[in-house]
Amino acid sequence: QITLKESGPTLVRPTETLTLTCAFSGFSLSSNAEGVGWIRQPPGKALEWVALIYGNNDKRYSPSLRNRLSIIKDSSKNQVVLTMTNMDPEDTAAYFCALTPTDILSSTWFDPWGQGTLVTVSS
Amino acid sequence: DIQMTQSPPSLSASVGDRVTISCRTSQSISNFLNWYQQRSGSAPRLLISAASSLQSGVPSRFSGSGSGTDFTLTISSLQAEDSGIYFCQQSYSFLTFGQGTRLDIK
C-alpha cells in the first residue's frame, strides 16, 4: 500500500522560510519512473502545483514560484523535503504531497495524495 | 501559460441524473488532461488520466472524453457520494489545475 504524509509547521511568520517534509511508504523514489510532487490549495480555492522531484533527481518547479523553492529527496529515509523562502500571507494554504508514476512531466498525474497540512502565514 | 476554464463553476443535481463537467484549455494539449474528485475535507483523488483512462477502483459511471482544447467529465448516473469538487489538470506545459466545479446533490 502506498501512503504519503506531510508534516511541518502550522504557522510561519511573513518573510520566514517554510520547510515541509513528505514521508512516504510503499515505493522507494529511486526508480526513474516515479516522482513526488507538492501541490497547494488556499482555503476555498483551487489547486496549484508547486514542485516535483523524480527518482533520477530531476527537479521541476512552478515558474511563478521557482525563485523561492527548493526540493530534495532522501531515498534512504523515504522523504521529500520542500523549502519555500520569503513566506507571505498569500502562501497560506493546505500543502499536499502526491506520487506521480512517471518521469515525464507531460505525462504527470498525481495518485495517491497525502492528507495535506495547513500552513498559515501570519504575524 | 495554458489557461484552463471549467464550467459550470457549480451545479446541483439529483441522484440518478447524468452530469457533465467541461474543461477548456487556451491551447491544444492533445490528451494530457486528468480529472480529480475532492470530497469535503479530503485530499483529491484521481479519477481519469490521459483524458479518458478510468483509474482502477473508480466506478464505471465516471468517464472522460475529449482532446485538443475541449474535455468533458461525465457521471452517467449520479450517486450521493459523488458530491464534492471536481478539478481538471493539464500536463502539456508544466502543470495547471482548473478552478474546480462544485457538485451538490439535491
Describe this structure in words.
In chain A, 0% of the residues lie in helices and 46% in strands. Chain A is mainly beta and 123 residues long. In chain A, the strands form two sheets. Chain A has a six-stranded mixed sheet with strand order 2-10-9-4-5-6, with no helix packed on it. Chain A has a four-stranded antiparallel sheet with strand order 1-3-8-7, with no helix packed on it. Chain A starts with a strand and ends with a strand. The mean pLDDT of chain A is 95. Chain B is mostly beta strands. At the A-B interface, strand 5 of A face strand 5 and strand 10 of B.
Secondary structure tally: strands of chain A: 10
Major sheet details of chain B: 7 strands, mixed
Quaternary organization: heterodimer
Instruction: State which percent range the strand residues of chain B make up.
Output: over 45%
Q: SSE string of chain B, helix = H, strand = E? A: EEEEEEEEEEE
Total count of helical runs of at least 4 residues of chain A: 0
Number of helices of chain B: 0
Helix and strand arrangement:
The complex is a heterodimer of chains A (123) and B (106).
Chain A: E1 3-7, E2 11-12, E3 18-25, E4 35-41, E5 48-54, E6 59-61, E7 69-74, E8 79-84, E9 93-100, E10 117-121
Chain B: E1 4-7, E2 10-13, E3 19-25, E4 33-38, E5 45-49, E6 53-54, E7 62-67, E8 70-75, E9 84-90, E10 96-97, E11 101-105
Parallel strand pairs in B: 2-11
Antiparallel strand pairs in B: 1-3, 3-8, 4-5, 4-9, 5-6, 7-8, 9-10, 9-11
